[in-house]
Amino acid sequence: MPERFRSGAGRLCLDFVRTLRYRGTPSEVEELPDGTAWGAWIDQLGPFSAPVRPASAREAVALREAVYELLTGPVRPATRQRLNRFAALPAPAPSLASSGELRWQAADPASAMLSLLARDALELVTSPEFARVRRCAGPRCGALFLDTSRPGTRRWCSMEVCGNRVKKSTYRAKAAAS
């Protein structure tokens, strides 16, 4: 299956927040408009081997916005309660298949995915890694990512996309000025 959603932000909850692409810009795009899209996100980035088909993306979008608020602060009491409620949902359970492969199971995979995402966000904001969460410097992007570079000075969510765009734009501006 070709990748539909962006990943590589450094944490699953950061990849999840990116489903509101170009947040805060005129180009903002909702990538989870319905249950089909939410299921596709789980299928691409979640731990389940079987396709997940949730009826709606309403809870996913509510969690995404709560995670975004948590990461960018300040956090309202209602948001904290929402995050805690999602984190308390049953999480997927690992099991070993006869083939020796690790499989993840849940009675309700979509709810279990919400639990994983909420737990990941809560773990991130209470860890030393949180100091390395950055906003992409790309003028049209705004995605959050975990800066795992040794000096902690990474500027773009993706050098191949946002970094390359900025460098091309700078080069063109310099060339036009000469």
From TrEMBL:
Superkingdom, taxonomy of origin: Bacteria
Gene3D superfamilies membership: Jann2411-like domain
InterPro entries reported for this sequence: ABATE, ABATE_dom_sf, Znf_CGNR
Ranges where the Zinc finger CGNR domain occurs: 132-174
Protein's name according to its UniProt entry: ABATE domain-containing protein
Originating species: Amycolatopsis melonis
